[in-house]
Amino acid sequence: MGSFLHTYYEGQSVALHDIGLMNYYADIKDTDIFGIADADLTRMRLSNSYTTEYLDQLTQSRQVKIAIVYTIGLCTARTLDQSGRMAA
Q1: Dihedral, CA of residue 5, residue 61, residue 39 and residue 31, to nearest 10
Q2: Which of 13, 20, 79, 85 is deepest in the core (most CB within 10 A)?
Q3: What is 8-59 written as a DSSP string?
Q4: Which tens digit of pLDDT belongs to each residue from 33-73?
Q5: Rounded to whole angstroms, how far apart are CA atoms 25 and 57?
Q6: In sequence order, what are the beta bridge partners of 30?
Q7: In whole numbers, what is the pLDDT of the chain averaged over residues?
């Protein structure tokens, strides 16, 4: 993914939830949608105000061109069944 971002999105705004190597390989302006490295999102998560509407507004205001997410990273303990799969 880092190579992809380097080739096609260098210098652009990108939303990620796995920020590590992608920032190393590509010069991007990232929005960490998991909230670990983004103070705005961390505050929203901690106040239970993190909604899809908020994320949509934030990514639009930051002119995000692409989002790269992994489904499992957006799950919480409440949405996983005992085997670790997404609950219906």
Answers
A1: -10
A2: 13
A3: H-TTSEEEES--HHHHHHS--EEEETTSSS-HHHHHHHHTT---HHHHHHHH
A4: 877 888 888 888 888 888 888 888 989 999 999 988 776 65
A5: 27
A6: 14
A7: 79
Q: How far apart are CA 11 and CA 51, in angstroms?
A: 27
Neighbour count for residue 26 (Cβ, 10 Å): 21
Contact 32, 38 (CB under 8 A): yes
The pair of structure tokens assigned to 82 is 């005992």
- In which order are the strands placed within the sheet that holds 13-16? 29-32, 13-16, 66-68
Q: Are 38 and 61 in contact (CB under 8 A)?
A: no
Count of C-beta atoms within a 10 Å radius of residue 15: 20
